[in-house]
Amino acid sequence: MKKLFYLFAVAGAMALTTFNASAQTASANAKEKGVMVGGALMVPSKNIVANALGSSDHTTLVAAVKAAGLAETLMGAGPFTVFAPTNAAFAKLPAGTVETLLQPENKAKLTSVLTYHVVPGRLQAKDLKDGQKLTTVQGETLTVSKKGNDVMINGARISTPNVMSSNGVTHVIDTVVLPTM
């Protein structure tokens, strides 16, 4: 009986320690200003990939970044500006497009599509000007357009701007922009 009580006491202490550590982390994150995206708080102390991993709106993008082998790059020093399509944006593509791009034999095409959404540097929404051309990591250009309060990148509307990360900034977009292939 003493052994059983001891096991419960040790388990309880471990659970309390884990709970306290989680509470401290949650408390630290709550103090840090961030932006809610996909049900998760995106905070400047995390890198672009770490923030994206928490977003339920970006599971397709995260899967694609992993399949292309770009996660490590986007966790690097940067800085990067990422125009991040949501799951709904990927769903707008013709049926089978995402599945085809995720196949290992299409890794080069997937990489081209994803790097077309990344611009070197840290560009906040205030830095984006109507008619501005942005050269992507992929090598082609994106065009910024403004209509009223809407900022668009090649016709994709920025729905959530200025998601700051330790290595750049992300702008959530409502459409996947495609390079010429």
From TrEMBL:
Is Translocase one of the keywords UniProt gives this record? no
Residue ranges annotated for the FAS1 domain, each copy included = 45-177
Q: Read off the InterPro entries from this record.
A: Adhesion/Biosynth-related, FAS1_dom_sf, FAS1_domain
Which UniProt keywords are given for this protein, alphabetically ordered?
Signal
Protein name stated in the entry: Fasciclin domain-containing protein
Coiled-coil ranges per UniProt = none
**Alphabetical list of Pfam families matching this protein:** Fasciclin (PF02469)
